Amino acid sequence: MLKIPDVLFLLCALGAADAVYKQWIPDTNYENETNWDKGSVPSGNDRVQFSASRKVSVYVETVHSVQEMRLPVDGEFILTSGAGFSVGAGGYKPGAVVKFKDVESLQWFDPALWQAASTADDLEKGRFLFSVHEESIPCRYDNVVFKAHSSFRVDLSSNRPSVPVQSVSVLGKTFRSNSEFSRYLGSPSGRLQFHGSSSISLGSSGCSDVSGCECGNAASLEKICGHVECSSVTCKKPLRPVGHCCDVCGAIVTLQYVPGFNLETYRQRLMHIFLGLTPYKSIQLGISKVEKSRWFLGVFPRQGAAEIQIVLMDGETGHQAGMVAEALARDILKDAQSAGSNLGIAEAEFQASSGSSSSHGSGRDTGMVLGTIFGVLIVVGGVFLLVFLYYRGAIRVPSLPTITMPSLSSLKRSSEIGDLGGPMDHGFDNPMFDKPTVMPAVPGLYGAENANSISLTQSGVHFVNPAYDDSETDFNA
After folding, report:
1. Beta carbons within 8 Å of 50's beta carbon, 6+ residues apart
2. Angle 252-255-256 (CA atoms, 0-180°, nearest 5)?
3. What is the DSSP letter of 467?
């Protein structure tokens, strides 16, 4: 049950804006030391050079004196009130040649070039949010901010024709419609500040789902990761959050939610209750709605389900990497267990880079059991349906070729046919059992008159066995 301070906090947090502000970090300001190859703004004795072939829009806030300046073929200076340049009089000792850095390669899809905040006030005060790489780039519901007192140059090239966002602020002016922003892009400043194969599309109404909306940059994740250089990790079991390009040491908390869950309210709760504690002040916390792949019966892929992902990273290294983040993950699970019903949290679980994991809630186990039962019912129902359709004649089983087996009588008849087509002889007469009156005598033993002692008859070949001549039996095989 929620305590009174928690209730008061949640009521205040309900008024927080649900739109995220993403601010472009680089600029092309003359007073920015990082824009010069010497690491300092040119002095009055220096010779300033801009690349003749590069386009650039330079913002100037004060008066500068230079010895010499070489300008680009296509460029501009945006001068504030009282800003300008003066050329040093002759006789000064020439200084160094200071070159303005090339900004042509700065790209929209580089996560390192953006910073995010929940509100415009947080953005102004430097209270930035941590995000996975995919969400570090402006999402379709975000407000894009280029610093009011600065200029820039950004390459919008991507694998899609347009980059959708909610609004764009340039030089202190906010654009919310494509028609108005298109007119600005046609101006000299707009042509120098934005370039590339894609364009910015405005007009999104913002995220209307209080449980959060997916970023929409998943299709560009490969391009985003092309700008990221991953460092080696030392933890036991590195984790890869959804939408992130690199393995990390820390913990990932996953929430299953029900109607009534408010993502921004819960973000503020975590920051108010946990990140203010001394042990967790170094924690980077990123929370967002993501779509995770689901499997039916653990085998068949099905439509992904949306869930809340909380990424926790600490600054520890070596064997301690991720240990503080794991401790915070356990505290978040305890909080979900005690106040989850009031926050709209149905189930919570976490994974840590140490190999530990835990969960709260029985929804997933119940879902697996119900899924298994449902799958068995589908299979049994399918079998009964096939049998029913077969007996109704709706489907037919294809007939197999008939194989005729020979009968015993045919085998018997065929066995009585000899090799030459005539009747087969089944044996011979054994003279051992022939009667003396039937068989003639054997030549040489019974006289010459019995020269035909071996004879051919219709029933077969007959001969007399002299060893058993006295037999009285005639045997025909």
Report:
1. 56, 58, 69, 70, 71, 72, 75, 99, 100
2. 145
3. G
187-198 burial, b if ≥16 CB within 10 A, otherwise e?
Answer: eeebebbbeeeb
Determine the Cα–Cα distance for residues 134 and 140; give it in Å rounded to an integer. 12
Measured between alpha carbons, how far is 121 from 161 in angstroms, rounded to an integer?
32
Rounded Cα gap, residues 421 and 187, in angstroms: 108
Q: Are strands 357-360 and 345-352 parallel, antiparallel or unpaired?
A: antiparallel
Mark out the alpha helices in 87-162 (DSSP H runs).
120-125, 133-136
**Packed helices 263-273 and 323-343: angle between N→C axes, nearest 10 degrees:** 130
Residue range 318-377, pLDDT digits in tens: 778 889 999 999 999 999 999 999 999 999 999 999 988 887 654 444 444 445 566 667
Contact, 474 vs 433, CB < 8 A?
Answer: yes
- Within 97-175, where are the H helices? 120-125, 133-136
- The predicted-structure confidence for 287-309, as pLDDT tens digits, reads as follows 999 987 655 555 554 556 899 99
Reduced to 3 states (helix: H, G, I; strand: E, B; else coil), residue 409 is helix
Claim: this prediction has a pTM higher than 0.90: no
**Which of 229, 189, 242 is CA-nearest to residue 56?**
189
269, HSE (Cβ side, Cα atoms, 13 Å): 24
Identify the burial level of 143 via C-beta atoms within 10 angstroms of its C-beta, where 0-12 means exposed, 13-18 middle and 19 or more buried: buried
Cα separation, 461 vs 454, whole angstroms: 7
Residues 6+ apart with CB under 8 A from 274: 280, 283, 328, 331, 332
- Burial level of 264, CB count in 10 A (0-12/13-18/19+)? buried
SS3 of 336, please?
A: helix
* Cβ neighbours of residue 423 closer than 8 Å, sequence gap 6 or more: 416, 417
